[in-house]
Amino acid sequence: MSPVADGPLLSVRGLGKRYGTQTGCLDVRFDLWPGEVIGVVGESGSGKTTVLDCLSGRVAADAGRVEYAVRDGRVVDVLRQDESARRRLLLREWGIVHQNPRDGLRMAVSAGANVGERLMALGARHYGEIRGRALDWLAQVEIGLDRIDDLPETFSGGMLQRLQIARNLVTGPRLVLMDEPTGGLDVSVQARLLDLLRGLVVELHLSAVIVTHDLAVARLLAHRLIVMRGGETVESGLTDQVLDDPQHPYTQLLVSSVLHP
Amino acid sequence: MSHYNFAYLDEHTKRMIRRAILKAVAVPGYQVPFGSREMPLSYGWGTGGVQVTASVIGPDDVLKVIDQGADDTTNAVSIRKFFERTAAVRTTTRTDEATVIQTRHRIPETPLRAGQILVLQVPIPEPLRWLEPRETETRKMHALEEYGVMYVRLYEDITRHGKVAQTYEYPVLVNGRYLMRPSPIPKFDNPKLDGNPALLLFGAGREKRIYAVPPHTRVRSLDFDDHPFEVEHWERPCALCGAQDVFLDEIIVDDKGGRLFICSDTDYCTRRQAAGRASGDHP
């Protein structure tokens, strides 16, 4: 067993980001363990996406420390590694699912090429094998195999999101960052996507950070929750605990704001 | 002649360009930025090639200029005249006689030899340009050797057309490191880039880049293991000289659908015809 196998996969301490005088996020701290899914919830502008962007390196954090245990057991300093190391990490170990699938997909090339891109970036040079892997993954995310040569333009919103997930998971990442993965989808499509995600997380032993404003999504997918408001963490704990017995007034407001039909 | 510095460019400019060329030779396939000058011809007509040629040519050199394989088209004639006037160098149409060859769109059929310099005119030097619009990003991709996206393009071609449909500017990997756009030569000429004994210089005037393939450098055309790189083939030989394994141009000869396939390399074709007439092999 490698020396850090007992430790968390991702360890975030004191993460902070300011946009001028505005606070993006402040002193965010959490540990993510292998196979665990953490939900980050809160209203719009609460800093959820900033946390995710700081982790993925899309925006540069001002403060804090993020440590990640790579496959071979080394622990890397995510915020202070150089760009080539960061891009390698994103390619080999992480996956990023954007809220708008158009941000995460190449809309001008076929679904098969979209799924195969990360494989080719990692050095796959056999067309038939790349295509075979793409077919496998389209089946896993329940996209018809006859759609492999179609452009994403012709896909529905739910299919686009599933295609984006396949594109990320094809290289077997260990950590997936998801920003509102069900945003903009109607409820039945959402339910199907949630089912799919839940299955994949268990099956592939994925760790994930899921940002969402939808408490139902958080309850279904996340093991633990972080509740954010105004850039700060107001409450964190096991999902059931936070949602069924909210302690902080803001969490209580959030939970009581959900409509029950 | 006396109104110009030798080969038109002033000596400081030539030195700057030679430095860029040296760097390009030292890092095969890497695009070296240089201070491209205004030349007395318009962009797209070979301003990059002309500047490279002007910087490497000496009074004893013999110059050949090719445009689409031909020595007698406007661009080739003009550039040849330009150097006759500004450098008073000897010019030729024969590939084997020339020491410096400036070319657009072709590498001559006659094999090049050590000591020759081939200067290629390049419109767009960046191989990743149509895949990634940001120059900052493409430079980063080169620096980090992130060339997966080029394979996405090949994948897409095979998916749609059953084969890689790119027939010119076919991307190559130089010396196992840099992805390079070999200027708009047909992919037929790609194998000639590999291990060529001559020095190959690429000049892009508008885009202000110079890159090089030094003699005997490995140049590999990108492909998939199960879809290997292939060059074009023609069913018939050249209608004029009978050459088999050369790049042919299609010439429409009447308005009833009549057409001829003839060598695109005029020097190669005329010399084969002359040799054929001498030996009586060809009509």
Q: Mean of residue pLDDT of chain B?
A: 94
Question: Total number of β-strand segments of chain B?
Answer: 12
Largest sheet of chain B: 7 strands, mixed
Q: What is the CA-based Rg of chain A, rounded? A: 18 Å
Tell me the number of strands of chain A: 10
Average pLDDT number of chain A? 92
Number of helices of chain B: 7
Structural class of the secondary structure composition of chain B?
Answer: alpha/beta
Give an account of the 3D structure.
With 261 residues, chain A is α/β, with parallel strands linked by helices. Chain A has helices at residues 48-56, 83-92, 101-104, 111-121, 127-140, 157-169, 187-204, 215-221, 239-244, 249-256, and strands at 10-19, 22-32, 37-41, 63-69, 75-77, 94-97, 175-179, 207-211, 224-229, 232-238. In chain A, strand 1 and strand 2 form a beta hairpin. In chain A, helix 4 packs across helix 5 (127-140), helix 4 (111-121) packs parallel to helix 6 (157-169) and helix 5 crosses helix 6 (157-169). The radius of gyration of chain A is 18 Å and the shape is globular. Chain A starts with 9 loop residues before the first strand and ends in a 5-residue tail after the last helix. The model of chain A has no long low-confidence stretch (mean pLDDT 92). Chain B contains seven helices and twelve strands. Chain B has helices at 11-26, 47-56, 74-87, 135-143, 148-161, 190-193, 266-279; strands at 32-33, 62-67, 90-91, 100-104, 117-121, 172-174, 178-180, 199-204, 209-213, 219-221, 248-252, 259-263. Classes of the chains: A alpha/beta (261), B alpha/beta (283). At the A-B interface, helix 2, helix 4 and helix 5 of A face helix 5 of B.
